[in-house]
Amino acid sequence: MIDKYVHRPHPRIEQRKTEGPAKVDDQRGARGRNFFVRVNAKLGLKVTMAVGTMWAAYLFTFLALFALPSAIHQGTYFVVVWLSSSFLQLVLLPVIIVGQNIQAAAADKRAEDTFKDADAVLHEAIEIQKHLSAQDEEINRLVVLLEAATKSRD
């Protein structure tokens, strides 16, 4: 029996050995981009990290509440304007960023887990290939014995 199947590993298998899963942190450095993009990415990240904390939310709440008495004094319309433009925007911005950071961490965890699962499946597939090759060798050996036994009867 002649082997008709030749296993050709997918090129992505070698590529996976040098890479890990894509993560949010990988995007922070803006690697490989021009100087201005890198500077903007770093500055934007620093501002986001500073504003995206619950401490910033508490500070903005205090800042917004500082303007509340003036809005109340000016009337209902200004209270609504204060609520929508000052309080909600100032307070919700850092809270939303905190939530986004938590979601990004969860996405990184999922990416890492998916990468590990895919890596495990890849290794299992390689073991299956080895097992099938061993079976092919044994089948070839048995075919040779069977052919020899058949020829000796003739």
Which helices and strands occur, and which strands form pairs?
Layout: H1 11-18, H2 24-28, H3 35-51, H4 54-74, H5 76-153
Helix pairs in contact: 4-5
Gross morphology is rod-shaped
Structural class: mainly alpha
Q: Mind telling me the C-alpha Rg? A: 32 Å
Please report the distance between the alpha carbons of the first and last residues: 20 Å
Given the structure, what is the number of helices? 5
Helix content: over 70%
User: β content, as a range?
Assistant: under 5%
What is the strand tally? 0
What is the makeup of the main sheet? none
Low-confidence stretches: none
Task: Give the integer mean of the pLDDT values.
Answer: 84
SSE pattern: HHHHH
